[in-house]
Every structure is written in structure tokens, then in C-alpha cells.
């Protein structure tokens, strides 16, 4: 279920935000597949991880990076979901959870198309 | 989005075979082998833990009655050829030309770059099992 939620969350973000989220090409949540393991095959996003240059940059590159980060976090904080949990594809959840709405009473217009594809399910936890 | 859960035709698996030698589960020193999880782990009883894999060279799910999953933290079991076959099918490529490990994580034993004949790198995250830390 963790893999299913990870993929669904990435797709949710990729489809409905402007963040650089890698596209998922193939995945499996079933450890009994031919690979004998869960996996996610995704796009390799080009760029430099912020941690690699963080200690060698100062001034405007820092403010650019931080502003972008804050804006992204802020824009996601405006999304109100219907309940506490993790994001899943609708079909990966039991009927009972599929019948519940994805969003709370206020829906951010940008995310409205997600209603048909995603639902909230159990909190994804590796342990 | 393609979801691959069914078994693939054998022919794809053969085409996907690459020069990379099939990873073995049996090298105590091969810290960079694709299957190895060599960071962020307990060091006590290290030799016993590594030996456990040498003796039971099988995926952990077959062995839970013999030994705790903790012993398999050292190695993440997966079928590299099948993984490459999945990648080839998803990307409509004929073969995988290179695969290398780029990171290890506590929840993702393997994080590797896979290069298909299109030379577009893919990132591949494999989640074998949760780690017993």
C-alpha cells in the first residue's frame, strides 16, 4: 500500500501542480510479481539537488530557491482534503473509502479534476 | 500510466538482458552491488547477518520461518532481468544498456539509474521490504 500511495501522490502532484515531479512509467505494489519485489519506474528529473549546492551558494540563488520552496509548500497547504490519511488511486482502495469524497467542503479549482481519480486512504507507513 | 503486474513474455526478458553481470547474492565485500543495502544498518552481528544470506540464498518471503527478516536488510531481493524487462516494455525499448545504483535509503533498498537503448536515464526505486531497524 505504501508504494501505491507513493505513486498516487506523485501523480496527483504531477497532474495538478507545476512542480517538477517525475512521471511514473511503470510500478507494482505486488511483491509476488515477476520482479519479486515492489518497484516504481520513473522519469529521471534533470537538475541539481538543493543539498548539493546549499553550502556554496549565497544571496539571490538562496532567495530564489527558498521563495520557490515556500510558494510550493504554501500552495499545497491551501488544499483541504476530506479526511486525514494518504492519497491513493481510487481503484486501490476498498469500496467504502472509494465512496468518500477526496476534498473537504472547499475545493481549490486547480485540483477539481483530481476528484475522479484519487481518494484518501490509510496513512502510508513503511514500518 | 502503465501498471505492470502481470508476467511478461520470456522473449522480452531475453532482449532485455544486458552486459551487466547478473547480480549475485554472495559477496561479503561487494558493498556497491545492486542488491546490497550497505548504509544505515546495525553493525552488531554483522558477519552472522551476512552469512545468513549466504546460507539461505533465497528471497526473504520464502524464509520467514527460518530466519527473521532483519537478516535480509543486507540484501534487497529482486530479479534484475525482470526489472529490466519491465523497463523495456514500459519505454518501448529493446534492451537495457546500463544499470547502476545511485542511492540507498532506509525504506528503499535500491535506487538506481537504468539506461535503455534510448539513452534516456530512468530512475528506478525498488522497495523490497521494510527494514528492521
Layout of strands and helices, then pairs:
The complex is a heterodimer of chains A (127) and B (133).
Chain A (H helix, E strand, L loop, with lengths): L1 H15 L7 E5 L9 E6 L6 H4 L6 H18 L8 E4 L5 H4 L19 E4 L6
Antiparallel strand pairs in A: 1-2, 3-4
Chain B lengths: L9 H7 L29 H10 L24 H12 L4 E8 L6 E7 L4 E7 L6
Antiparallel strand pairs in B: 1-2, 2-3
Helix pairs in contact in B: 1-3
Which residues of chain A form runs of ≥5 with pLDDT under 50? Answer: none
- N-to-C terminal Cα separation of chain B, in Å? 34 Å
Please state the oligomeric state of the protein chains shown: heterodimer
Total individual domains of chain A: 1
* Mean model confidence by pLDDT of chain A: 90
Radius of gyration of chain A: 17 Å
Low-confidence parts of chain B lasting 5 or more residues at pLDDT below 50? Answer: 1-32, 58-73, 127-133
Strand order of the largest sheet of chain A: 1-2
SSE pattern of chain A, N- to C-terminal: HEEHHEHE
End-to-end distance of chain A, in Å?
A: 12 Å
Summarize the largest interface: chains and residue counts: A-B, 26 and 38 residues
Helical content of chain A (DSSP H or I, runs of 4+): 25-40%
Distinctive features:
heterodimer; A: 127 residues; alpha+beta; two-stranded antiparallel ribbon; 4 helices; B: alpha+beta; three-stranded antiparallel β-sheet; 22% helix; 17% strand; disordered N terminus; disordered C terminus
Amino acid at each position: 500500500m505504501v508504494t501505491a500511495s507513493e505513486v498516487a501522490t506523485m501523480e496527483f502532484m504531477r497532474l495538478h501542480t507545476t512542480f517538477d515531479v517525475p512521471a511514473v512509467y511503470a510500478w507494482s505494489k505486488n511483491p509476488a510479481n515477476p520482479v519479486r519485489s515492489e518497484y516504481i519506474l520513473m522519469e529521471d528529473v534533470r537538475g541539481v539537488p538543493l543539498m548539493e549546492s546549499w553550502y556554496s551558494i549565497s544571496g539571490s540563488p538562496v532567495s530564489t530557491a527558498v521563495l520557490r520552496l515556500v510558494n510550493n509548500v504554501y500552495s499545497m497547504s491551501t488544499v483541504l482534503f476530506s479526511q486525514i490519511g494518504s492519497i491513493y488511486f481510487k481503484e486501490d482502495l476498498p469500496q467504502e473509502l472509494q465512496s468518500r469524497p477526496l476534498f473537504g467542503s472547499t475545493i481549490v479549482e486547480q485540483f477539481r479534476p483530481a476528484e475522479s481519480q484519487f481518494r484518501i486512504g490509510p496513512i502510508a507507513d513503511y514500518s | 500510466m502503465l501498471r505492470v503486474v502481470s508476467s511478461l513474455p520470456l522473449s522480452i526478458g531475453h532482449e532485455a538482458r544486458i552486459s551487466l553481470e547478473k547480480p549475485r547474492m554472495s559477496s561479503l565485500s561487494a558493498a556497491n552491488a545492486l542488491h546490497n543495502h550497505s548504509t544505515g544498518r546495525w553493525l552488531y552481528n554483522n558477519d552472522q547477518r551476512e552469512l545468513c544470506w549466504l546460507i539461505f540464498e533465497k528471497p526473504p518471503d520464502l524464509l520467514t520461518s527460518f530466519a527473521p527478516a532483519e537478516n535480509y536488510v543486507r540484501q534487497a531481493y529482486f530479479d534484475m532481468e525482470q526489472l529490466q524487462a519491465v523497463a523495456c516494455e514500459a519505454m518501448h525499448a529493446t534492451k537495457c544498456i546500463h544499470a547502476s545504483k545511485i542511492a540507498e535509503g532506509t525504506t528503499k533498498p535500491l535506487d538506481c539509474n537504468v539506461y535503455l537503448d534510448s539513452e534516456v536515464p530512468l530512475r528506478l526505486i525498488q522497495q523490497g521490504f521494510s527494514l528492521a531497524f
